[in-house]
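Hi,

Apologies if this is the wrong queue. I'm a grad student, and the batch job for 3-isopropylmalate dehydrogenase from Roseiconus nitratireducens produced an output file that my downstream script rejects. I'm not sure whether the problem is my script or the file. Here is the sequence I used:
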Amino acid sequence: MKASIVLLPGDGIGPEIIDQARRVLEKVGQTFGHEFNFESHLIGGIAIDKIGDPLPDSTLQACRKSDAILLGAVGGPKWDDPSAKTRPEAGLLRIRKELGLFANLRPIKMFDELADASPLRREIIEGTDILFLRELTGGIYFGPSERSGSGAEESASQAMVYTVGEVERIVRLAAEAARGRKNRLTSVDKANVLEPSRLWRQVAARVMAEEFSDVHYDVVLVDAMAMHLINRPSDFDVVVTGNMFGDILTDEASMLPGSLGMLPSASLGSDGPGLYEPIHGSAPDIAGHGIANPLATILAAAMLLRHSLSANAEADAIEAAVGEVLAAGLRTKDIARGGESIGTVAMADEVLKRIRS
Ligand SMILES: NC(=O)c1ccc[n+]([C@@H]2O[C@H](COP(=O)([O-])OP(=O)(O)OC[C@H]3O[C@@H](n4cnc5c(N)ncnc54)[C@H](O)[C@@H]3O)[C@@H](O)[C@H]2O)c1
Ligand SMILES: CC(C)[C@H](C(=O)O)[C@@H](O)C(=O)O
Ligand SMILES: [Mg+2]
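Support response: The file is valid. Your script probably expects a header line. Output copied below for reference.
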């Protein structure tokens, strides 16, 4: 197979972890006889610094032509001025919107070998296997925003907007995913307070009744979900929710496997290339120290192989290698819980050694 993969390293630890995921993909290419062509492009703060735009046209065009995109992270204190004209994060939001990547799959996969890394008790996290489907191109992230007034009367607003069509397509995708798993779908909203959540709940209920009556379906309010997630995580199978709730709940869920550095994601649309990235950010507090956990990005590369290139055996090979590394007790600092740890490159070296066809 030949495939062209665009790499968007971005900011902070982005370049460090993308370098390692690329080495893993190259090893997969050699092992399975594929030709992967990599092109790196600018996004985020570095793109603001070099081109004055967090998503330069050249980057967007290259992404459109590619088979898949692997992104590191964007943002950092250097670009945090609230009065700045643009922000690194705007580049990420725009690429998701431009490519129509409305479905963000965030698997919360437990590696049994890593149970010691979680701050939660083993009996709570055991058996946890959740697939979050976070709606990614709508909701409050993309609603109209405004600043007006001055002095103590100055105000800011941003609207949460969902259309029926946006809810239907993400719920359908989530319900189909549930059919291939434990056949359970939970929809998370704030319908006791928010109008868009009431629309979300009505549309989801109709889609489930009309098209997926075989799937066990329930709804949970987002505040309660934040609690259930760390109290009884193994009760959930597929969880579908809006853009902001999905963002927050999945960072919380990273404490099940033990670190943000363990969670990958896939952002998919109805056609065109998918975008794959860790769920974490640019981790400015550890950038440049060589200690970032590359496994979330390496697992995102596995999702890229599975979802964009239909290379399931190759994706399995990466996931198996990660499992073996963890079983061997090898840990980056974030999952070492004070014990011995290895750095970013050494962790990727250990994964590389274990990639087999
Ligand atoms: N997809 C993205 O590009 C993305 C996602 C989230 C945040 N951000 C941006 O990143 C910047 C920093 O945000 P933040 O600090 O709130 O969140 P963050 O996810 O970057 O970091 C939160 C904490 O987790 C740790 N961490 C994250 N990834 C890690 C890894 N791979 N290995 C070890 N530790 C890791 C960090 O060191 C930090 O202590 C902000 O500008 C934010 O907007 C970008
Ligand atoms: C950086 C930010 C725009 C982004 C989001 O909120 O979607 C991040 O937190 C994520 O989870 O990918
Ligand atoms: Mg986030």
